[in-house]
Design goal:
Layout (H helix, E strand, L loop, with lengths): L1 H11 L37 H10 L3 H9 L3 H8 L3 H8 L10 H8 L3 H13 L2 H8 L1
Helix pairs in contact: 2-3, 3-7, 6-7
Length: about 140
Amino acid sequence: MEAIMQHSLRALSPRPLAHIGLTPIPPRRTAALTSSFAHPIRNRDQALPEPVQTLIVHRHISAFRAWRTHQGLSMRAVQQRTRMPIATLMALDGGEVALCEWTVEPLAKALGLDASQLLKAELLARLNRPETITAHLR
């Protein structure tokens, strides 16, 4: 019985393909997006523009609103580009709702950004919310 199990385990184990001139392809990583922070940040060296940082840090506004203001876009213009409900955009703009996996890409595209830029701003906004700062001071 044990010999059969050993044979079965060997049959299930991946065999090297080098003997026939092939190299195995590593399995693809599939990310299950659960929040805006799960989105891959591709351009790590790209800094946020100073006006965007200033709006987020000193005026405590949302990342979406900071970028929208910096790009000079109205809510109506963003709504026409994304086809998102205006109520959703207003909640994102006011910081009542955080960016999520469904909103990052369309908003970044509408703002003319890479998603990583919008996510960096979102991270900065989350870290600079007054309630976050006071929680860390306790």
